[in-house]
Amino acid sequence: MEAYPKYKDSGVPWLGCIPEHWTTKPGHAIYKEKLDKNIGLIEKRILSLSYGKIIIKPEEKLRGLVPESFETYQIVEPGDIIIRSTDMQNDHTSLRTGLVKDKGIITSAYLCLKSLNPDRSNFNHWQLHGLDLMKVFYGLGSGLRQNLSWKDFKRLGLTIPPIHEQNLISRYLDWQSSKINKFIKAKKKLISLLKEQKQNIINEAVTKGINPDVKMKDSGVEWIGEIPEHWNLRKLKHIAKMKSGDNLTSVEIEEKGQYPVYGGNGIRGYYHRFNRSGSFLLLGRQGALCGNIHRVKGQFWATEHAVVVTLKKDICLNWYYYMLIFMNLNQYSEAAAQPGISAEKIQNLRTTVPPLNEQEQIAKFIEEENSLIDKTITRAEREIELIQEYRTRLISDVVTGKVDVRSIKIPDFEPVEADVEAQEEESEDEPVAEEIEG
Q: In this predicted structure, what is the pLDDT of residue 193?
């Protein structure tokens, strides 16, 4: 894409030069602050800002909220633009702007902007989204935590292309964003299928073995089905010892140190002592992700939030790791405000146990097969990263006038939104199983 023929100084330090026929105006000439409290609870639909999108908050995520608290929320309507204006000091990664598409209520901690010219709403959204990607807002906040107020925002210099050009820019970015979202959806679907394939390889290998000609027998356990005739069934407590780690307060855990400290979901920091040395499996004991499995090597401190698995001599650690992944221990968590799994309950579960040499063969087979799939997953994830980087650069360049899109022919296209809710579910519910070396 080409640049505009002529440029001029915008007078805005962070913006630099803009197309000669564009103008700049302060925020208060384009927006007004909207303050419409939900007095009397007249609006019930609760919205949230997630991944740069304003979404309807699912009912299952409203636990613990009482209706009276919603009177302090603000009512927003389609076309309004929300800026998460809090905590600029600490959070430099989140997307902070979103265009409202559904009437509802959202926390009053956010800044709600209404375009003075409704025809500008979509362009305004893209422009502020571009500034968000460029991290412009971080230089505007005030106070100890650098919160962004209307007083700060209204002085922000913003570019004003002619209205017909705003519409062209908006339509161009809608088109490009839809193409990119479609590409990302396809890649994420591929990744999901590949992860499913990895899980199927694990499931098949740890329950059926890797010899297709072996004689089978009924295991007597419904969820396991048939197993090789020479395999045994044993309770977990007969093949491994499970014990919680030792208490360590957050004050004692340091950012740097000699020995890593592991909780149930990975490394938490460092400590000057260790309570385990060797190769172990750690199970997450508490929280929504309890049952997560980690392989840990070396000298480290295991906290009380991790269940340390010590194996008997006839058990291969890598095979047992994959067996526990197959068993999906999270399904045995006990419902509570803080979900958790009981080591005693887990140890009474039964599983298949092949001879040691076969355990080693199975573990090696799984790792070889899944390493090929992992390479494809890594490549797809990298492609997503690159297209997201391209989108960030494209939006920033277009809304600031660094590139000229006026002559580009935009075909009819089907709008494709980013699947925000699917992204949230993925990040919260995807099983975690990784190898950690201390």
A: 98
Using H for helix, E for strand and C for coil, what is the string for the chain? CCCCCCEEECCCCCCCEEECCCEEEEHHHCEEECCCECHHHCCCCEEEEECCEEEECCHHHCCCCCHHHHHHCEEECCCCEEECCCCCCCCCCCCCEEECCCCEEECCCCEEEEECCHHHHHHHHHHHHHHHHCCHHHHCCECCCCECCHHHHCCCEEEECCHHHHHHHHHHHHHHHHHHHHHHHHHHHHHHHHHHHHHHHHHHHHHHCCCCCCCEEECCCCCCCEEECCCEEEEHHHCEEEEECECCCCCCCECCCCEEEEECCEEEEEECCCCEEEEEEEEECECCCCCCEEEEEEEEEEECCEEEEEECCCCCHHHHHHHHHHHCHHHHCECCCCCECCHHHHHCCEEEECCHHHHHHHHHHHHHHHHHHHHHHHHHHHHHHHHHHHHHHHHHHHHCCCCCCCCCCCCCCCCCCCCHHHHHHHHHHCCCEEEEEC
45-70 tens-digit pLDDT:
999 998 889 999 877 666 655 556 78
Answer whether residue 73 shows pLDDT above 90.
yes
Domain coverage including residue 319: 194-370
Please tell me the distance from the alpha carbon of residue 297 to that of residue 178, in angstroms, as a whole number: 45
**CA 415/CA 391 separation, integer angstroms:** 16
CATH number at 95 reads 3.90.220.20
How far apart, in whole angstroms, are the C-alpha atoms of residue 312 and residue 304?
22
CB 169 within 8 A of CB 177: no
Total-model pTM: 0.82
Q: Which of 16-20, 48-52, 246-250 has the highest mean pLDDT?
A: 16-20
Residues 55 and 130 in one domain: yes
Q: What is the dihedral of CA 189, 191, 193, 197, to 10 degrees?
A: 180
- Per residue, the 3-state secondary structure of 355-368, as one string, reads CHHHHHHHHHHHHH
Tell me the C-alpha distance between 210 and 201, whole Å: 10
Q: What is the number of structural domains in the chain?
A: 2
Structure-token pair, residue 111: 């800044």
Q: Is residue 340 scored above 50 in pLDDT?
A: yes
- Please tell me the distance from the alpha carbon of residue 128 to that of residue 320, in angstroms, as a whole number: 51
Do residue 100 and residue 213 come from a single domain?
no
Is the pLDDT score of 426 beyond 60?
Answer: no
